[in-house]
Specification:
alpha/beta; Rossmann fold; six-stranded parallel sheet; five-stranded parallel sheet; 16 strands; elongated
C-alpha cells in the first residue's frame, strides 16, 4: 500500500518522505522499495545513522535539487538541514513510535503535504482523530494468504517452562526472540538462558551497540547463525524473519498494549504456527491497568485484531489532548463512550454559546438586560442523571446472556428520540418476546432523562415515592433569567398541588409526592416543562 502510494506521488512529480522509527527498518524499507521499483524511473535513497557524513551531505543536496523521488529515513528526516524541492506525500510507518512534535515538524515543511500513517495499533490520540472524523481511517482486516493467528499465553518465569518452549521451537528448526527491555541486566538473562538451554546459540542486541555491530548481529540471526536473539524492544519494529516463530516477552506487564501487539507481530510472518509467551509476575501483584493490558493482548490474538487492541488502548489510556501534544491520557475511569458523549456535547455547545454571546451583545446595545436562552440547547448541554429505587432494568429471565444485556444497555443509553425507542422495543419483542414491566420502566427512564434535559433539570431522584428534580446547579446561568425558567415557574404555580418549589444549600429543585412509577414521574416532568 505504501509503495503504491509513493509510486503514484513520484509519477506526479512529487517527492515522498517515508519516516520510520529505527535504522534497521529504514534499511529494510530501502531494500523493499528499491527492489519493487527497480524497473521504474524512481530514485530511492535512505537516511540513518548507518550512513556516513559524506553520504548524508550528498543526499541532502540531492533532496534539495529534487533528484531523489523517495527518501526513507529515521528522525534524521526531521533535521532542520533537510530541505525538499517539492514534498507531496509523507508516509509515517509504525506511527505509534513518534511524538506529535516529530510528525508536525515534517508537515511544517510544506502546508499541503498529504499524510499516510501506517500502524497495527494507532496511538489513542490518532485513533480519536479518526473516530471524530478529523482523519480518514482504513482498516485492512484481510491477512496475507496462509497466515495463522499467533497463539498467546501468559506464563510465570520458570526455568523448566522457558527451556521447554525454546527446545520445542529449536526441534522444529525455528528461531526464538527473547525480549528483555533492561540493558543493565540483559547479560544476567543471557547467563540464565545459556544455563537452561546450553545447546542454543544466543546473541544479544540492544540500542547502545555500535550501529555496525548491531546490524551484523541482526543479519547473522537472519542468516540462521543464532538460535535465540536476546534483545530489548529495538526489534519491535521492522524485523521480518519468517523462520523466527516463537517470542518470549519478559516482564510483559511493563510494556504498553500497542508495544506488546507490535512485539507479537515479529512472529507468525509465514505459514508456520507461531507462539507468543508473556512472562509476568503473579497476576494479583499487577496494577489494574497492567492486568487489563495483559488480558486484552491475550484475548485479541486473531489476525487483524490490531484495531480492537487500539480501541482497548484508547479506553485504558484515554484520548490525550486533542489540541495539544499529549498522545494519551486517562479519562478518569469514566469509559470511552461516556467521554465521547461529553466531548460531543461540548462541541455542540460551542456554536450555541457563541450565538448567545452575540445575542447578549446586541441586547446590551439596546440596553436590554435579558439574555434569551434557546430551550433546544438544554438538550445538548444538560447531562441529566436519573436515580431511582424502582425496578428499571433488563431482567435475567428476559435476556440471560450478559454480553447481550450490556449491549442493550449501551444502546438504550445512547438513544435520544422516541423513534429510536420504538425501534428498540420492536426489535426486542421480535427477539426476546413481550417487553417485561421492568424493561418498560427502563425505557421510561430514557424518556424521563430526555424530558428533564429539555427543562434544564440536571438530576432526578425518585425514591420511596418522592421525586426531586434539581435544576442547573450554576445559579448564575442565563437559564434562570430566561423565558424557559419563567414558564416552568408558571407551570409550578398552575399545578400547586403536585409540585413544591424548594431552594436551599445552593440548590433549586422541585419536590413531588406519590411518585410510584417512572411513568408517573415522566407525566409530572411533562407538566413541569409544558410550553418550554
Amino acid at each position: 500500500l505504501a509503495i503504491r502510494a509513493a509510486f503514484k506521488a513520484a509519477c506526479d512529480g512529487k517527492q515522498v518522505a517515508v519516516l520510520v522509527p529505527t535504522t534497521i527498518l529504514a534499511l529494510q524499507h530501502y531494500r523493499t522499495f528499491s527492489e519493487r521499483l527497480k524497473d521504474f524511473p524512481c530514485t530511492v535513497d535512505y537516511l540513518s545513522r548507518l550512513r556516513s557524513a559524506k553520504d548524508i551531505k550528498e543526499i541532502q543536496q540531492r533532496l534539495k535539487e529534487g533528484k531523489i523521488d523517495i527518501i526513507i529515513g529515521t528522525h534524521r528526516l526531521i533535521n532542520k538541514k533537510i530541505e525538499f524541492k517539492d514534498l507531496g506525500l509523507l508516509i509515517i510507518d509504525e506511527e505509534q513510535k513518534f511524538g506529535v512534535t516529530a510528525k508536525e515538524r515534517l508537515r511544517q515543511l510544506k502546508a499541503s503535504v498529504d499524510t499516510l500513517t501506517l500502524t497495527a495499533t494507532p496511538i489513542p490520540r490518532t485513533l480519536q482523530f479518526s473516530l471524530l472524523g478529523a482523519r480518514d481511517l482504513s482498516i485492512i482486516n484481510t491477512p496475507p494468504p496462509n497466515r495463522l493467528p499467533v497463539y498467546t499465553e501468559v506464563i510465570p518465569f520458570e526455568d523448566d517452562s522457558i527451556a521447554e518452549i525454546i527446545s520445542r521451537e529449536m526441534e522444529r528448526g525455528g528461531q526464538i526472540f527473547f525480549v528483555h527491555n533492561k540493558i543493565e541486566d540483559i547479560n544476567s538473562v543471557y547467563d540464565i538462558l545459556h544455563r537452561i538451554v546450553p545447546e542454543a546459540e544466543i546473541c544479544i542486541a540492544h540500542g547502545r551497540m555500535e550501529a555496525e555491530v548491531l546490524e551484523k548481529k541482526i543479519i547473522d540471526f537472519i542468516d540462521g547463525e543464532y538460535d535465540i536473539l536476546l534483545s530489548t524492544s529495538i526489534m519491535e519494529n521492522g524485523i521480518d524473519i519468517p523462520n523466527a516463530n516463537t517470542i518470549i516477552i519478559n516482564q510483559a506487564q511493563k510494556f504498553g498494549l500497542s508495544d506488546l501487539h507490535q512485539l507479537r507481530g515479529r512472529v507468525g510472518r509465514s505459514n508456520v504456527k507461531a507462539y507468543c509467551y508473556l512472562v509476568v509476575p503473579p497476576i494479583a501483584s499487577l496494577t489494574e491497568d497492567a492486568r487489563r493490558r495483559i488480558r486484552a493482548i491475550e484475548a485479541f490474538s486473531d489476525l487483524g485484531s490490531g484495531f480492537n487492541i487500539a480501541m482497548q488502548d484508547l479506553d485504558i489510556r484515554g484520548a490525550g489532548n486533542l489540541l495539544g501534544a499529549e498522545q494519551s491520557g486517562f479519562i478518569a475511569e469514566m469509559g470511552f463512550e461516556t467521554y465521547m458523549r461529553i466531548l460531543n456535547e461540548a462541541m455542540a455547545e460551542l456554536p450555541l454559546s457563541i450565538k448567545a454571546e452575540e445575542e447578549a451583545n446586541r441586547e446590551h446595545q439596546v440596553k436590554q438586560a435579558r439574555i434569551p436562552v434557546l430551550p433546544a440547547s438544554f438538550r445538548e448541554t444538560v447531562d441529566t442523571q436519573v436515580e431511582t429505587d424502582l425496578e428499571a432494568l433488563i431482567p435475567d429471565e428476559y435476556v440471560n446472556v450478559q454480553s447481550e444485556k450490556i449491549r442493550l444497555y449501551k444502546e438504550l443509553d445512547a438513544m435520544s428520540s422516541e423513534k429510536e425507542l420504538e425501534r428498540f422495543q420492536k426489535e426486542a419483542e421480535d427477539r426476546f418476546g413481550p417487553i417485561p414491566p421492568q424493561l418498560e420502566e427502563l425505557m421510561n427512564v430514557v424518556r424521563l432523562r430526555r424530558a428533564a434535559q429539555g427543562a434544564g433539570i440536571e438530576r432526578v431522584v425518585i425514591k420511596s415515592g418522592t421525586m426531586l428534580c434539581y435544576f442547573i446547579s450554576n445559579q448564575m446561568s442565563p437559564f434562570y433569567t430566561g423565558p424557559a425558567f419563567g414558564k416552568i415557574l408558571d407551570n409550578i404555580n398552575r399545578n400547586g398541588s403536585r409540585f413544591q418549589f424548594k431552594e436551599g444549600n445552593g440548590k433549586i429543585y422541585v419536590k413531588s409526592e406519590g411518585v410510584e412509577s417512572v411513568k408517573r414521574a415522566l407525566h409530572l416532568v411533562g407538566l413541569l416543562s409544558e410550553g418550554v
